[in-house]
Hints:
The protein has helices at residues 13-19, 27-34, 94-102, 118-124, 166-174, 185-198, 227-250, 263-275, 286-291, 298-306, 349-363, 369-374, 378-405; strands spanning 45-46, 52-55, 65-72, 75-83, 106-108, 111-113, 132-142, 148-164, 208-214, 217-223, 253-257, 315-319, 331-332, 337-338, 412-419, 427-432, 435-441, 449-458, 463-468. The protein is of the alpha+beta class and 470 residues long. The protein has one domain (6-259, 313-400). Strands 1, 2, 3, 4, 7 and 8 form a 6-stranded mixed beta sheet that branches. Helix 2 (27-34) crosses helix 3, helix 6 (185-198) packs across helix 7 and helix 7 (227-250) crosses helix 11 (349-363). The chain starts with 12 loop residues before the first helix and ends with a strand. GO terms for molecular function: 3'-5'-RNA exonuclease activity; RNA binding.
Amino acid sequence: MQRRLSAPQIDFDAIRGELGVSEDYGDAALEEAANARDRYAEQREDHRDLPLVTIDPPGSMDLDQAVHIATDGDGFVVDYAIADVAALIEPEGALDAESRRRGTTVYFPDGSVPLHPRVLSEGSGSLLPGVARPAVLWTIHVGADGQIGDVAVRRALVRSVARLDYSGVTADAAAGRAHPSITALPAFGALRQRIALSRGAIELDLPDQEVVHDADGWSLQIAPHTPADMWNAQVSLLAGMCAGTLMADAGVGLLRTLPPAEPGAVRALRDTARAVGVDWPDEQAPGEFLAALPADAPSTLALMSHAGSLMRGAGYLALGGGETPAPSAMVHAAIGGIYAHVTAPLRRLGDRFATEACLAITAGEPVPDWVTRAFPTLPKILRSADSLGASADRLSIDLAEATVLAGRVGEVFDAVVLAEADAKKPARIFIDDPAVIAGCSGNPASATRIRVQLTAADPVRRTVGFAAVG
């Protein structure tokens, strides 16, 4: 059995400095956040009697979403409350400008740097349990066939009754003791996932590396994927698809887009499946093929890794600034429909503006000028924010890998080959203990289990290297 590797200390401050990320919001923005008041208090429907619950990682304080799902005959009624951040931020004020400069909450293993000051993101704006909070409440009817029926969205006053986490929700559902507010969540999630696959959605189930701190120091682990992650994701996707459709039909808003996979990428994935001995029926769509693969097979890891080529070109599309884009340009191919981000406004800049468009559209009112002025500027900001978040994640993992493995050069590990070497890059391997994805010299075959030797681990350069043994 592989002995657990850890490092007593890892300092991520240098990465924050390198990326220019800090909690210096400026005095004016901090003052606005500290004195935030609900600008729409008089317009809210009172839904504090709705027993909503939040589902987030343990310890989370920036709670964007709270949910209640009830059965409705053979279908469901989903009530989904989203933190009403726009109600707490003065349009085009100091805090608004600072949030546009940042674009996103940036996550590091030792903590996050929030999009908004913590007094708002973890206080007055967060859907913490037991306190009344301003929210945007979506009520969405889903039929027994999984299709979307009536949709309502309005400003409301809500109060969450419990803060839950993914592993707890999964365990409670398996034991038949799910919280009454989400007893129907597993059935809803499974139904909507089946519908997603039938419309061509693609989900990549690759291992997520996680840098974890405990009593022994820092270690690299696999972030668990629980059924509750999928169930909860289906709620968010449902709201995002409703929001995207509303804005696309109205011709104003902000969509999240992804072009269809290039035919060559699909052919290459089929070639990989054939090479590793996995049957892929001609009539089966890529998403259905990937979803049916056995979770623990080396071939599955390799195929999921290769399938990333199907999901290139994600972007943001602002609507309402001129010529109407073609319907195909508005689609998110991996979701299999029109989609928008609206469910995480405490952590993502664009959600606040897209939500305001949805509220105005459903009320039959003009979208506010401060929102329409922002839309053309947001795609560039959000692309930059996505890149920043990805860099923070990758650099942190690189540092953790090199630090945890420092002093272990020469040791041998079990690995799965995710991709063979090509003219530009070495082979890529996955080690599950410690959780490392790295390059490997030699030319091992894809989707095989091999032994690899650690040849280098440099925390200063944040690099590691492996070589195939034998």
